[in-house]
Amino acid sequence: MQISLDTSKFYDRIWAAFIFFTRLPFWRLYQPPKEAYQTVVEHWPLVGWLTGASMAAVLYFGSMLFPYEIAILLAILTRLLITGALHEDGLADFMDGFGGGGTDRQRILDIMKDSRIGTYGVITLILYFLLLFFALHAMTPYDAALTIVAVDPFAKMLSAQIIQMMPYARTEETAKSHIVYRKFNMVAGISLAIQGLLPMGIFIYIMYARLDWQLLIFVPAITMYFLYMLIWRRLRGYTGDCCGAMFLITELATLLVASYYLSV
Fold first, then answer.
1. Which neighbouring-strand residues pair with 168?
2. Which of 30, 42, 100, 138 has the most CB atoms less than 10 A away?
3. pLDDT digits 0-9 by tens, 171-215
4. In this model, does residue 3 exceed pLDDT 50?
5. What letter would DSSP give residue 115?
6. For residues 107 and 117, is the Cβ–Cβ distance under 8 A?
7. What SS3 class is residue 237?
């Protein structure tokens, strides 16, 4: 009976992650209990399997029908539609807060919660999409597709560590989603590692002779660490916007390394 109960909770948490991190109508199929949403980060890389695979498929097969530049734009648009630009919104809010809030913790939090986008957010999104586009364009469609499938869940696994490293910066009542993520237990941590490392491990195995896998792992890891230090010094805690921004920046850092080695 206990095993059945645990299995039920496990599936509840997976459903909650896909409902929370995408705009696909999974909620029409199943409605997990509210407490399941406290664990969505534990299955964030698993959602990355879906978003990464969808983006990669559109890029690779789209390049057979359209010029490569259009296929890349369609791939980027695909993920934006699936996620509802959730992470990009977080990146813009993060940059507005940290760019315009100075060292005032409360002001940073207030700016990040403001639904309006500011100068820092606009400039950051423009630069982010330009770098993303050119990083993918530097590779062949095949290489770019494989890279996306591996990097999306890997970057989400790395970024998820932030909730283990510091407390939540707001209260549940003042959070945008009214959810505070729980810290991982050992089983959740192992599951998270498998979700993020398995696609990356397969990618490194396929591309072993063409890239420096140590640099491919080190650059996003050190990027994540410096972002963690910045967030800790300014906020002494994380928010959902911090998670989204960390994911996109960490993913971009990994893609830039891959594009350096796999460029045509």
1. 238
2. 42
3. 766 666 677 888 999 999 999 999 999 999 999 999 999 999 999
4. no
5. S
6. no
7. coil
pLDDT in tens, 81-117: 999 999 999 999 999 999 998 889 999 999 999 889 9
Enter the tokens of residue 231. Answer: 């967030």
Q: What spatial distance separates the first Cα and last Cα of the chain, rounded to whole Å?
A: 56
Question: Which amino acid, residue 95?
Answer: M
Maximum CA extent, the chain: 56
Question: Is 237's pLDDT higher than 90?
Answer: yes
Mapping DSSP to helix (H, G, I), strand (E, B) and coil, where does residue 168 land? strand
Helix residue spans in 162-212 (DSSP H): 162-165, 186-207
Residue 173: which residues within 8 A CB-CB, separation 6 or more? none
Separation CA 52–CA 157 (nearest Å): 13
**Which of helix, strand or coil describes residue 101?**
coil
The answer to whether 168 and 237 are in contact (CB under 8 A) is yes
Handedness of CA 249, 255, 257, 259 (dihedral sign): negative
Cα three-residue angle 221-183-222, rounded to 5 degrees: 10
Could you give phi then psi for residue 115, rounded to 5 degrees?
A: -70, -15
Q: Note the pTM of the prediction, 2 decimals.
A: 0.93
Q: Tell the residue number behind the tokens 């490293």, with chain if given.
A: 165
* pLDDT for residue 5: 43
Q: Per 3-state DSSP, what percentage of the chain is helix, strand, and coil (rounded to 5)?
A: 75, 0, 20
Report which DSSP code applies to 177: S
Residues 6+ apart with CB under 8 A from 237: 166, 167, 168, 169, 170, 231
What DSSP state is assigned to residue 264?
Answer: -
Residue 41 DSSP one-character state: G
